[in-house]
Amino acid sequence: MATQSRAAKEDSRKYWDEKFETMPTAELQKFQLRKLKETVAWAYERIPFYHRKLDEAGIKPGGIKSLDDLAKLPFTVKNDLRDNYPFGLCAVPLREVVRVHASSGTTGKPITGPYTAEDLDQWTECMARNLWAAGVRPDDIAQNAYGHGLFTGGLGFHQGLSRIGCAVVPTSSGLTEREITLMKDFGATALFSTPSYALTIAERAAELKVDIRELPLRIGVFGAEPWSTAMRQEIEERMGIKAQEAYGLTEQGGPGVGFDCIAQDGIHLNEDHFLAEIVDPVTLEPVPLGEKGELIFTALQRRAMPLLRYRTKDITRLRREKCPCGRTFIKMDKIFGRSDDMLIISGVNVFPSQIESLLLEIPEVEPQYRLVVRKKGYLDQLIVQVEGKKDIYDAGPEKRLEVAAKVMGHIKGHMGIGVEVEIVEAKFINRSEGKALRVVDERPKQLR
Ligand code: ADP
Ligand code: ZN
Question: Is 245 close to ligand 1, i.e. is its CB under 6 Å away?
């Protein structure tokens, strides 16, 4: 009985960490400035790479007087992490490191992310905020289908869920039928995975004649890859749940950097831990608040690997506005995509998630697609391969051509680009178990 009433009281709490999550901006910025000064000094004194970079840039830690001075600091890029692989950017002796993760290497050689005990604790707190904002509560049976291992997703969610006090079921990813059986048998109320894996689970469940909408599942927290708003709605419908979002990157400790609230209108950034900027990806000059560009993060409290002005390659916009949830943390738009995945087709910048949104508006196709880029003469040609619904595909080549023309017209109408569309058969596209591979670049390396 006593336990029950405790859970009930905690459940009604609106925020995980009210003090920071609702801190007035001026106060938050004062806190950020103090932490920024400390971090720059920490990095300068302990990491030879930053000592050299700051000396070259002619700025000493004492030169940081306001948040605007951030612009004086040098950037850090993924290659800096690779060049210093594995522990060259570690600010503490390995004796003080209690965990090392590595990126999944979507875009090349892995990079390492070391944590001190304090880093792990803060990461856990950030994740708990994220999950709490999504509506996860101690009573939840939490099925964690992020890959467990070097990837930060599995353990990051595990820690946050454990801190909240959920019954965590660490299924990891890959054994999709077992996910569905356990979801049913255990009565999971919350699911955690990449959005593309959630879709794989939903699809497999339908094949097994399990209607997830009839199960107790009520929330999902999805992240680690770009997904469109249309994809969110698709997952919400197929599973009968609220699909919330998590954002993060190994270089800044993993998931828990940002999260959306139930307003589902932008991703709040844990601003007391991460100082965000948007810069023009070409000139690297900061852009005015509200303009689109590359997202940059400076870690404010990390001990083992406090990266300064890390270039995420993620393209988004920041907004400082009142949110109905009451949180004061700045919001960013859903990530449009990584600049690495941006295609330039007939002079137009194209992100896979834009095509994804449009495909989801065509009832004759499944939300299973990939984009193939080829050279046709001097021009880049984009081929959209998307699975037709079974009856459409089976109706024969004429029907498929008709649907392909419809998809082409829809993309042309909304994005102004001419693409080729192939309606492919069911299961032509590999099902994702983690991060989906959306772009296949078949252009000769030297012509990309
Ligand atoms: P890798 O770089 O090898 O994929 P990470 O797991 O560190 O390894 O990936 C971090 C990246 O994943 C982010 O920089 C971003 O591009 C992407 N990402 C993470 N969460 C989201 C999200 N909610 N929406 C869009 N992209 C995301
Ligand atoms: Zn909010």
Answer: yes
Whose CA is closest to 132, among 120, 144, 140?
A: 140
CA of 265 to the centre of ligand 2 (A): 7
Name the token pair of 153: 């997703």
State the pLDDT at residue 11.
79
Q: Is 442 exposed, middle or buried (0-12, 13-18, 19+ CB in 10 A)?
A: exposed
Confidence check: pLDDT of 420 > 60 = yes
Does the Cβ of 438 fall within 6 Å of ligand 1? no
Mean pLDDT of 55-64: 97
Ligand 2 midpoint to CA 323 (Å) = 5
Q: What is the pLDDT of residue 105?
A: 62
Tell whether omega for the bond before 86 is within 30 degrees of 0, i.e. cis: yes
Query: How big is the CA angle at 353 (ends 338 and 331), to the nearest 5 degrees?
Result: 65
* β-sheet bridge partners, residue 220: 191, 243
Half-sphere exposure of 249 (CA within 13 A, CB side): 24
Pocket-testing residue among 173, 227, 314, ligand 1, by greatest number of atoms within 8 A of Cβ: 314
**pLDDT tens for each residue of 392-409:** 999 999 999 999 999 999
Please list all protein residues whose beta carbon sits less than 5 angstroms from ligand 2, which is an ion. 261, 263, 323, 325, 327
pLDDT digits (tens, 9 = 90+) for 189-207: 999 999 999 999 999 999 9
Q: Is the CB of 273 under 6 A from ligand 1?
A: no
CB of 323 within 8 A of CB of 265? yes
Q: What is the DSSP string of 159-185?
A: HHHHHHT-EEE---SS-HHHHHHHHHH
Minimal-distance CA residue to ligand 1 atom 8: 103
Nearest-ligand number for the alpha carbon of 313:
1
How far, in Å, from the CA of 259 to the mean position of ligand 2? Answer: 9
Which pLDDT score is estimated for 123? 98
Give me the residue label for tokens 């680009």.
Answer: 417
| Contacts with 214 (C-beta within 8 Å, 6 or more apart), sequence order | 240
Tell me the C-alpha distance between 202 and 195, whole Å: 10
Q: What's at 346, amino acid-wise?
A: S
* Whole-number average pLDDT of the chain: 95
Q: Any idea which residue has 């060259």 for tokens?
A: 88
Q: What six digits make up the tokens of 191?
A: 């699911």
